[in-house]
Amino acid sequence: MLIPLDYYRILGLPIQATAEQLQQAHRDRTLQLPRREYSEVAIVARKQLLDEACAVLSDPDGRKAYDASFLAKTYDRESEAAIFAKQRSKSSAQSATVLQDDAGETAPAESKALDAAPDPHTPSIEIEDNQFVGALLVLQELGEYELVQKLGRPYLNNGSSAIAEGRFGDKELVRPDIVLTVSLACLELGREQWQQGQYENAAKSLEAGQELLLRESLFSSVRGEMQADIYKLRPYNILELLSLPEEKVAERRQGLQILREMLQERGGIDGSGDDRSGLGIEDFLRFVQQLRKHLTSSEQQTLFEAEAARPSAVATYLSVYTLLAQGFAARQPSAIRRAKLMLMQLGRRQDVHLEKAVCSLLLGQTEEASRALELSSEKEPLAFIREHSQDSPDLLPGLCLYAEHWLQEEVFPHFRDLASQSVSLKDYFADPKVQAYLEALPQDAETANEWVVVQPRSGKPQGRLQPTADRPIAPTGPPAVKQGASTVTLTPVPADTAKAADRPKYQSKAAELGAVSAVSNPTATAERAPSTAKLRRSPNDRRRSGGTGDLTDRARAAAAQISEKVKSVPRNRLALFIVAGVLSLLILWWIFSLLASAIQSLSGPSLQGEQASISLEEPPLEIPALSAAAPAEPGTAVPVSGAITDEAAAQIVQGWLSAKAAALGPNHAVEELKQVLTEPALSRWQLMAEAQQRNNAHQRYVHSLQVKGVKTNPTNPDRAEVEAQVTEKAEVFDADRLVTSRNENLRVRYDLIRQDGQWRIMDWQVMK
Asked: What is the DSSP letter of 681?
């Protein structure tokens, strides 16, 4: 049978090789044994071909005759190069066709072999049938991976009887040798395609080889190599699939599915699980940052909101970006409001006040935006904002300018469908949908919500969202591809990244994906506790400010001050400050008008506002229900020596509800909170109670409680969870005047910790 080989290639030599080089090459190739998994049949057949090549080329007359035949087929270099280029251009399609042959193939192997007949322009040699396995092995060592599959696979299909009849030697040895050679060709072809950036084809090649070995139940170690490469290849494959045009729906959906599988194995974006890709936490964060520009805003929202529920601080932060971008681009302030609620979850551990300020600005909550800026520690953005708010009574002009630039240059570019859109605050606030929503939006609804959903503490502490360099991923590259006797190390092809020089000087840490530090910062400033009442002035302030007319006058005065500042700025900034001045007038007009009506209908904390959509959704615990607990005295901590019981849990939660009523009640017994709460809830509620006391406001509560279940942490007996149904009736007073009342029925999960022999409440989460 004819095989597309020549004696020079078998020995790895050029036609100009000397006699000494022939002998040296023969010795080297003979000593260089193939993988240990090959049988003696394959090793002997390979050596026969090496010996035959050396014998023919070592004889002067034999070499002269062989060279004449060899050169007759290879003189036309241009024709040969064209044929070679044509073959290589079709290699991917051919290999895909070959790889898809399965056990159901019924075409005779002989017909397949005819299809694989050598090209007339390609040198070939005649070999014996028992040398076929050795010839395949030589072709594999020479890097002819597609050819190996084309020649070898037909004999492995059910329609072939050549191996079973012993045509190539002992069938018990020959079949495993052919299977091994074809599968190794798949492995090396996959690595070669990986190097060339053909990640999807590489994955298909590796999977085809793995399927062959699984079908034959052979060579588990080789199968393990393929599986390891498949795992390491997945990030590249994901990037290639997601970068396809949006019309390639099936392929892009496949890329998202592979990404979800990796996330599940890792335990989330910032998880520490092993997905066997070789990417550490920092590398994986950079990988996520890379792929974001290939995802639409809706794809990112679906992905990151699901990941935020693990919980994940990074996924929550990315969800904020997504909601902000979607809300601004689609003129949907409700999405921006959801983003703001998510920031309240992150604010307990990270400084996200700047992002809160932007959200508040886009919601028309200018006073709250100013308060957020006061709490921010972002030096460069604040310097930019102050620089562009000179001679203004507040930082609103600079914040407007910063928000516009930030959205345009740091947020929108990370979304496939928004990267080319322009950002205009003027157009946003001029939209009738935005105006209607902001006019109906309670001005302090988010901060007034006592029961706002927050993420419970995870097992590992989390620090600030730290910026990482915006550079491409550097996962473990593909293993070296064998090419004859030499080895070439492959380097992964990096994705395009933005140049550092293009980054504006006012870039904030929100511009890049943050990595959660392994240890939380004990000196970080705690987030300021949200107020429990609607935005209000003290009675003296109300008397001084007068009615709606005075508020309007103040809005006009503020706008006039901004206008005066605009006159003093350079001409190249004049247009921006004109926009900021007009925007300021609109916002201040709305806010002060709303404040006038809000003063007349002050209300306390309520669940009527939209809740954050990110929450833990865990399967319900099958724990018997407990009857309503007996009331406990305010500020009573419960000492428990063993595992916590349902009765003790009910007493602890009831003690908290009583302490809450005392701390926020007319007597403002703030000290009661220390008896039942611990950090982080203690600081937050102390600040809340003190704020109510300063504002001469209080609340009166009536609670009923039913404990639904108690779960002690199996690894830490000093930690527990209590699930309870809480009914809360509340009346909110401004001085002695009843402002509002509410009646809520909530399902709450409390996180408990035992300290100094007493159980205290760390935090809680309202369940859906």
From this structure: H
